[in-house]
Every structure is written in C-alpha cells, then in structure tokens.
Amino acid sequence: KIFMNTLKYLQSNEFLLDVDLWRLFANLEELNKVISKSFLQFFQGDLCQTHQIYCLNYTSAVFYLENLRQREDFGIYLKQWCEQNERCKRLHLPELLVAPLHRLTRYPLLLNNIWKRSADETEKGFIWSLKEKVEKSIRDLEGKVKWLDNFQKFRQLQEVIIWPQVWDRDKRFFVPEYLKQSLRENSSENILSSANRLLLHEGRLTLAESTRLLDVYLFLFDDFLLITKIKRNKKKYGGSDTGLIPVCPSLAPELQSFVREGGLCTVLDQPIPLDRLTLRNIDPIHVTVFSLRNAFLIQHENRYRQCIAVFLLQAPTETAKKTWMSQIETAISHYTMQHETKKNTAFCFPAESSEI
C-alpha cells in the first residue's frame, strides 16, 4: 500500500505519469478488500478468482518493474519515497509483490489445521470442502502461470535471437534481389512462436573452428538444439527509454546479464532436430593438441543419415560438460519416446464396421 499510494500521490502531482499502476500492482486493492472480510466470507467468496488475477499478472509486473528500475526518477521514488518508510521494514518492492503468492499457498495448510481442531462433523465437512476448493484453484493457477511464464520467455527469445538470411549466412548461396523479399516472408523467427515448445537447458560454450575459438550460446529445446554466436550491441535494454524491451526475469541469469549489456544471439546454423542429432564424447587426450578441455562433439545428420554439420564444443568445466551431455541425451530420449508413441497410435486403426 505504501508503494501504491505513494505512486498515486506522485502522479496526482504530475510525476511518473507514464508509469502504469495496473501493470505494477494489478488488482491489489480488490485483493485487500477480499482479505479484510470475515473468515466465512473470505473463503466462500471470490478469494480464488481474485488471487488468480493477481498471480497471473505477477510475472508481467516483475518484468515491467525490472525495466522501470533502470530509470533515475523511478529509482528516487523507490528508494527515497518508499523504502525509507519504517513500515516497509527494509523490504523492497519485489519482495512485497510476491507476498500474495506465498499467502495463497499457505491457505490449504491453515484450513487443514482448522479441520483437525474442529469437533462438529458438519463444520469439519464444510472446512474440508473449502480446502479442496482452494487446492484445486492453486493447481489450476500453477498450470496457467507456467504457460504464461513460458509464453513471455519465448517472446523475449524472439527479440534476442537473430536469424540471418541464408545468403548472409553462407556466401555460396546466390539469390537475386527481386526474390529476397519473398524468401524473407517465410521467416525462421516464427519457429519460436509456439507456446507449447519448452526450453530445457541453455548456456555459454566455446566452439572450436579451424582457425579460432568462438563464443557461442546454446539453446536446447524439447525438439531441437540451436547454436548461436554471441554478438554485442552498443544499444542497451532499459535506461531512460521505456519503449525498449525489458529483460524477462524467467530467462537464465547469464542471458539476462548479457541482454542488459545489449547482447544478441545470432543463429550460427540451422536448428538441429533431436532425431537428427548424434552426441559424441571427446577423450581429453585427443584434443590436447588444440588446447581444448571438457570437449564434446555434436553431429547433425540429414534424413538420409548423412553428416551435414559437425560442432566441436568446449565447456568451461568438466561438470558443465557432463550436464550438457546428460541434458541432450535425456532430451533425445524423451523426444524419441513421444514420437514412437504417436507413431504407434497412428497405426492403431479402429476395427471395421460390419456394415461396410
């Protein structure tokens, strides 16, 4: 309330007018009214729905706050107008925004304890039904939050990952100017638009090329592996321009830091489908001549099992190497199992009707 009411006061005096109250605090006022009701009203009313609205906005609020904190005027509002208030008890806004989420998860435990101490059977049945209602609401909410979090993460990845045109990636391919526009319309960027795709593992590695070592960033999805090269950009996210894209808090810390510095990930080669990927361990004795350590090899095969690309990668530590290899092997195994199940299901036709 201190942060929200202070912002309202400042905006009434024409400060921070471009800051969106809803994007930061969502339906916090409505939530406070629900929480202030009596016990029976509290659990019989719109508790779950009100909490769900707040929780579904939470990730977006943190996303928005992360961008605003880069601004000097917003920083003054946070530190000098709010955080110094003794009622905040040295808590910062991110710690306070998450509190309603933690509160919601404690309700089933609270109701269970009340149920144990109740003597009246009618009352016990009523409280038990409330507990089940709240637990179901939390399960539904968890699914929605995961989907929304994944959607926002992939939307950010679409901004961070750059897909060069085939003629820019490989000079062997010549395309007349008048055909380039039609090829651009079939953009590869849409490959990351599916909210059903999952990012399983990611991180920075080193790619050994014939004449140099190249810093790369790998994204392991549940259906393909993407190798990108790291490109630094002078233009940074954040700053005083609120139109710039904020950094999604669900991204890996390493990538968050990289994006804040203006970094981009340019796709090095086409995505490697997991059913076309072969993983090989490299014995240290075989790569000492190249001064490589913790190395492993990724082989990309086409549908005819011909090798069309090879990537010799070096991890920063032996542990990181083992993690990468384990993650890739597990992803391949899961992908293969899923597709075998789909294939078997497709061949299980229903029995023919006797009328045919």
Automatic annotation (TrEMBL):
<feature type="domain" description="PH">
    <location>
        <begin position="198"/>
        <end position="333"/>
    </location>
</feature>
<protein>
    <submittedName>
        <fullName>PKHG7 protein</fullName>
    </submittedName>
</protein>
<dbReference type="InterPro" id="IPR000219">
    <property type="entry name" value="DH_dom"/>
</dbReference>
<dbReference type="InterPro" id="IPR035899">
    <property type="entry name" value="DBL_dom_sf"/>
</dbReference>
<dbReference type="Pfam" id="PF00621">
    <property type="entry name" value="RhoGEF"/>
</dbReference>
<dbReference type="InterPro" id="IPR011993">
    <property type="entry name" value="PH-like_dom_sf"/>
</dbReference>
<feature type="domain" description="DH">
    <location>
        <begin position="1"/>
        <end position="151"/>
    </location>
</feature>
<dbReference type="GO" id="GO:0005085">
    <property type="term" value="F:guanyl-nucleotide exchange factor activity"/>
</dbReference>
<dbReference type="InterPro" id="IPR001849">
    <property type="entry name" value="PH_domain"/>
</dbReference>
<dbReference type="InterPro" id="IPR040181">
    <property type="entry name" value="PKHG5/7"/>
</dbReference>
<dbReference type="InterPro" id="IPR001331">
    <property type="entry name" value="GDS_CDC24_CS"/>
</dbReference>
<dbReference type="GO" id="GO:0007266">
    <property type="term" value="P:Rho protein signal transduction"/>
</dbReference>
